């Protein structure tokens, strides 16, 4: 079964939802492949990174309300074994981060096509995404910075010089833009969104038990179709 995950790397609920899916898959005995699809919560340019808490205060009516929202989200994340440090996070345009995930996916696909079977786990898109989430939500890294992205990539085993050369080019830009358009054309308006077997959508950071039940139900339906 193919699982497509529509997400953005500055979305806390995407971080939580992806972690919960991982938990669900640990109890699922079927074969799956996971593909990561880009989505941008805000595609606006970010000339200078700003503290995320300041941005949320403007959006939700003041610092107190922003703290209430982020404290609740951090509490939910802690229940999934994740740390969220909104006091460190900074705003970023995530287009280049999505290009970097595309780059890692291309590497993984190429290795599989050449008969390598798999790439080193640290070099795949799953580990890269985990590192990007952690960089944004824990370490306060500006994931809109190409230099910072290259450093995150190096931390999971990708070649930093190769990654920086890629990010400074236009490679992958057309493909990522097309994928972002496709998400909107498919009606994806909020993330995370999990699409199972190309036909069944599960919205939101559902509990692992809910995701496991969805996986089992889709497998049952697909087997009978």
What does this structure look like?
It is built from nine helices and four strands. Helices cover 54% and strands 9% of the residues. The protein is α+β, with helices and mostly antiparallel strands and 225 residues long. The chain has helices spanning 12-26, 52-60, 63-79, 95-113, 125-137, 146-155, 160-167, 173-185, 208-224; strands at residues 2-7, 33-38, 193-196, 200-203. Strands 2-1-3-4 form a four-stranded mixed sheet, sandwiched between helices.
Strand-helix topology:
Elements (H helix, E strand, L loop, with lengths): L1 E6 L4 H15 L6 E6 L13 H9 L2 H17 L15 H19 L11 H13 L8 H10 L4 H8 L5 H13 L7 E4 L3 E4 L4 H17 L1
Parallel strand pairs: 1-2
Antiparallel strand pairs: 1-3, 3-4
Keywords:
9% strand; 225 residues; alpha+beta
Largest sheet: 4 strands, mixed
Strands side by side in the biggest sheet: 2-1-3-4
Structural classification: alpha+beta
The low-confidence parts are 117-122
Helix segment count? Answer: 9
Give the ordered list of helices and strands. EHEHHHHHHHEEH
Which percent bin holds the helix content? 40-55%
**Percentage of residues in DSSP E strands:** 5-15%
Shape, per Cα inertia axes? globular
How many strands? 4
Mean model confidence by pLDDT:
95
Spatial separation of the terminal alpha carbons: 14 Å
Radius of gyration computed on alpha carbons: 18 Å
């Amino acid at each position: 079964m193919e699982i497509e995950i529509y997400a953005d790397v500055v979305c806390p609920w995407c971080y939580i939802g992806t972690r919960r899916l991982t938990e669900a898959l640990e109890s699922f005995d079927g074969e799956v492949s996971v593909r990561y699809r880009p989505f941008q919560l805000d595609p606006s340019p970010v000339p200078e990174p700003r503290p995320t808490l300041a941005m949320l205060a403007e959006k939700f009516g003041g610092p107190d309300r922003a703290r209430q929202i982020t404290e609740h989200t951090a509490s939910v994340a802690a229940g999934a074994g994740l740390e969220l440090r909104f006091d460190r996070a900074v705003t970023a345009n995530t287009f280049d981060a999505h290009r970097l995930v595309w780059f890692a996916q291309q590497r993984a696909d190429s290795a599989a096509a050449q008969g390598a079977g798999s790439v080193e786990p640290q070099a795949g898109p799953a580990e890269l995404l985990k590192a990007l989430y952690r960089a944004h939500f824990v370490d306060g890294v500006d994931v809109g910075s190409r230099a910072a992205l290259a450093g995150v990539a190096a931390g999971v085993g990708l070649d930093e010089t190769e990654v920086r050369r890629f990010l400074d080019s236009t490679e992958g830009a057309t493909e990522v833009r097309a994928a972002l358009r496709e998400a909107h054309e498919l009606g994806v308006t909020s993330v995370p969104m999990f699409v199972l077997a190309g036909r069944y959508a599960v919205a939101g950071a559902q509990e692992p038990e809910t995701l496991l039940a969805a996986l089992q139900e889709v497998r049952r339906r697909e087997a009978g179709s």
